[in-house]
Each structure stands twice: as C-alpha cells, then as structure tokens.
Prior knowledge:
Blueprint: H1 2-10, H2 14-19, H3 21-24, H4 39-68, H5 72-94, H6 101-111, H7 120-128, H8 132-143, H9 147-152, H10 158-189, H11 201-206, H12 214-228
Amino acid sequence: MAQATHEAAKRLSEYETYLRTEELLSLQKSPEQMSHHDELQFQVVHQTFELWWKEIAHDLDAIRGLIRSGEYVEAARLLRRAAQVKQLLLRVLAMLETMTPWDYLTIRAGLGHGSGMDSPGFRALLRLSPTLWADFTQALQREDVSLADLYIQRARHVGLCAVAEGLLDYDEYFQLFRVQHYRLVERMIGPDAVGTGGTPMAMLERTLHDRFYPELWEIRNTLVQRASHL
C-alpha cells in the first residue's frame, strides 16, 4: 500500500509531462552550486532569452514562406508577435538591473569567457533576420509596386504594407534591445571595460547602429520629399 502511494506521488501530471517541467526546472544550478543568490535569476533570464529566440526564429522561418506565397496578412500577424517578444525581452532584460555591479562580478567570475555573443539563439536571429528582405523585395516586384508607392497607395496594398510596418517594428525593437543591453553592460562593468568574451565596449557600441532593413528607414526621407512637392 505504501509503495503504491509512493509510486502515485511520483507520477507526473499531464501538464508536467507536456511541458517537461521536471527536466526544465533541473537546468538551473542548485542552491549549493551557486556562487551568489542572484545566480538563479541570471540563469533564468538568459535561458528565457534562448527560449524566446527559438520562438522568433521559428516564426521568421514561417514568415518567409508566407511572404513568398502572398499570405501577407498572416505574415504581418507573425511579425507583430516577433516584435512583441522583443518588447517582452526588454522587460526581462531589465530584471538584471536589480543586481549590483559587485553582485554581477561575483557571478561573472564563474561565467569564465562565456559571452552573450555566443548565444546560439541570438546568432540564429542575426543570420535569419536579414533574409526576410529578399522575400519582401520579391513581393514588391510581384505586386509591381515600389517601396515608396507601397506607402502612398497603401489602400491598394494593405497586406503588404502591413508586412513592411511589421518588419520595421521588428527591426526597431531589435535595436532597442541592443541599446538596453549595452546600457546594462555599461551599468555593471563601466564604459571602458572589456566583456567576458573579449569584446570592448566601444565595439559593442558600434552595433547599436546596425539595422536589418535600412531601406525601410530611408524610405521615410523619400516620402518627406514627395510630400513637400504636393
């Protein structure tokens, strides 16, 4: 009887089995392994990033196919989700600001040469995100419309224009994440330090100007010029 009760207690619920919670919650250091109380937060935040990077990459891959097949409304919906995930991660990143610099340096000692630049999820997005531009420009050619006229004649190309704005939202929030990450690093180790992966702060700062879709930003200049001649 006691054995049966013990076995029943060990049996996982359908929720736990589906989400693999036992495995998931074993992926962080145990209290006795931690170098600092805040190390659990540090791991959870970064593991959360990897999960959401995976979701974004999953959606971006689907978006490419949707744009190619002319399913612009659905592509725009998934782009909105990708942008919202980036918004969410700005809040998650801010959690690390609850650490003091000395707390972080204690945790950093155990990180060794590990660096956020080595994140497989982030690197996947750096590879995948720019590829959407080729699919989008091919869609413009297919619809026989220039980028400027896409905005000027938006009523004729509502779905594709929504894709353009979705790409811009995604690009913008990706930049905002980079800016916030830079400020966080500056807050923790100072403006003249070198990151754990050997990246100087000056090099990290240069990435703040990177954009996946510069044409979508530059077209605003064209629209201003066109409007000035009305």
